[in-house]
Design a protein that fits this description.
- This protein has one domain: Cytochrome c oxidase-like, subunit I domain (Cytochrome C Oxidase, Chain A, Up-down Bundle), CATH 1.20.210.
- 73% of the residues lie in helices and 0% in strands.
- The longest helix is centred in the middle third of the chain and has 37 residues.
- Helix 2 runs parallel beside helix 5, helix 7 crosses helix 11 and helix 10 runs antiparallel to helix 11.
- The chain is mainly α.
- This is NnrS family protein.
- Keywords: Membrane, Transmembrane, Transmembrane helix.
- Pfam families: NnrS (PF05940).
């Protein structure tokens, strides 16, 4: 008895499918779990503060899944190689799920087993991507080094956890998030102006991007300098000055991408909003370090939840449509997800100091809005990610 192709599940037919879905689900589960931990006062990692569990799972769980989905989809396009599917993809999904399950029960596992399970995923991803990236050497090949350093940050976190050295674990988290910010600067600097120009031209809007290779290189170097400074001396005044320079460079760069002309196209303006959190977060850190402004103290969430989280949602919605043969037009529920996420980050960053909300209210409200945003993503995109392309093509 034959099965209608349009209703057949194909979760492992391309890299973005399982990992975008897992990223969306874990964005909801991870934050709701954190809210429960926060309210109950539990310590999932023993003597290490519970915020470290939250930071680790958002970075090396949620963000890692999104990065995997992006790279497993982009690398075949960059290199002209076949897409990743089938058993290799299933293995990667198994390793990622094993890591999340291990951290959920971190307190009851031998440390060596927890570390072995957690640190297996990124090397496996690198082994799958390496042949294509090394065979066709290009500007994208160094992304293997980014993945290696990202894994090293996770390993540093685990080493600190093993020895109850919170300073080392905190540095491991900073290694990870700063690599993500550099990646956003490089990849975002390619896709945001490109997608914006294509969208405006498709609507017969004359457009000319204001950009320069010199500005792009300076912005990337400034972000690399900030990343190094933040990893080594996160609260030093020199790090504040570097953050200020990087914020100004990011702002000038973004201003040339014609974001205000995309307000009628949510799938495009959300990319600009995501990138905007980069200069905002950097500026907040500079203000906090150089001026001692207490209201700027939550730059971490502007950069993590704001820049990384919003860009992930923006890219996942766009890529899921484009790579399944659908028009690049988002529905109302997806637009609602964008708005809810922007509200979540805004409240998390400014709610306590600027809006005078009780801190516990800020955490719970922002977490609830974040979970609602990604819940909408899961509702809308689960069938998109699990069912075959609507144009009948493979992938």
């Amino acid at each position: 008895m034959s099965t209608d192709r349009s209703t057949r599940f194909v979760p492992f037919s391309y890299g973005f499918r399982p990992f975008f879905l897992l990223a969306g689900i874990y964005a909801v589960f991870g934050v709701l779990s954190w809210l429960w931990v926060y309210r109950s006062g539990l310590m999932p990692l023993g003597s290490v503060p519970s915020q470290f569990w939250h930071g680790h799972e958002m970075l090396y769980g949620f963000v890692a899944a999104a990065i995997a989905g992006f790279m497993l989809t982009a690398v075949p396009s960059w290199t002209g190689s076949r897409g990743y599917a089938g058993k290799p993809l299933q293995l990667l999904v198994f390793l990622w799920l094993a890591g999340r399950l291990a951290f959920l029960f971190a307190g009851s596992l031998p440390f060596w087993l927890l570390a072995a399970i957690e640190l297996a995923f990124v090397p496996a991803l690198m082994l799958i991507l390496a042949p294509s990236l090394l065979r066709t050497w290009s500007r994208n090949t160094p992304l293997l080094l980014v993945l290696l350093l990202f894994w090293a940050g996770d390993a540093m976190f685990m080493l600190g956890l093993a020895n109850s050295e919170t300073v080392m674990s905190a540095r491991g988290l900073r290694v990870g998030i700063n690599l993500v910010l550099v990646l956003l600067t490089v990849i975002g600097g390619r896709i945001v102006p490109a997608f914006t120009g294509n969208a405006l031209r498709a609507h017969a809007v004359p457009v000319q991007m204001r950009s320069s290779a010199l500005l792009d290189r300076f912005t990337i170097v400034a972000m690399l300098a900030y990343a190094i400074a933040d990893i080594i001396a996160p609260l030093h005044s020199n790090t504040g000055w570097i953050a200020l320079i990087a914020a100004l460079a990011q702002c000038v760069r973004l201003s040339g991408w014609q974001g205000m002309r995309t307000l009628s196209q949510p799938i495009v303006w959300v990319l600009h909003v995501a990138y905007l959190w980069l200069p905002v977060g950097l500026a907040l850190k500079a203000l906090y370090l150089l001026g001692g402004f207490a209201w700027a103290a939550h730059w971490q969430h502007a950069l993590g939840a704001g820049a990384a989280g919003t860009m992930i949602l923006a890219v996942m919605t766009r890529a899921s449509l484009g790579h399944t043969g659908r028009p690049l037009v988002v529905n109302r529920l997806t637009i609602a997800a964008y708005v809810l996420l922007v509200l979540a980050v805004t409240i998390r960053v400014f709610g306590a100091a600027v809006l005078s909300l009780p801190y516990q209210t800020v955490v719970l409200l922002a977490g609830g809005l974040w979970a609602a945003a990604f819940s909408l993503f899961v509702v809308v995109y689960t069938p998109v990610l699990l069912l075959p392309r609507c144009d009948g093509k493979p992938g």
